[in-house]
Design brief:
Helix content: 55-70%
Shape: elongated
Structural class: mainly alpha
Largest sheet: none
Oligomer: single chain
Length: 82
């Protein structure tokens, strides 16, 4: 969503930045380990998330993604109106 301020994510080639995919994958794995691996969970003081709680987190993340994409559409619309 934030790779470009003007292009929509669906307009961009996802293969152009493999480091981004590696970072997203690594971050996801580490976050899940912090939540679901008991030794890390107790060391960092995190709590087990149920499927519902995890779905809520993913839902809000998706809403943020959609919000940023809609900002791009609205911005393009205002620029083209002039």
């Amino acid at each position: 969503a934030v790779r470009s301020d003007t292009q929509l994510t669906i307009q961009m080639n996802p293969k152009t930045n493999p480091y981004l995919w590696a970072a997203v994958g690594l971050t996801t794995v580490l976050q899940l380990l912090l939540i679901y691996f008991p030794p890390l969970r107790s060391f960092f003081g995190t709590h087990f998330l149920s499927f519902t709680e995890l779905s809520i987190c993913l839902g809000f993340s998706a809403l943020m993604f959609i919000w940023i994409e809609m900002e791009k559409v609205v911005y393009k619309w205002f620029i083209n109106r002039r």
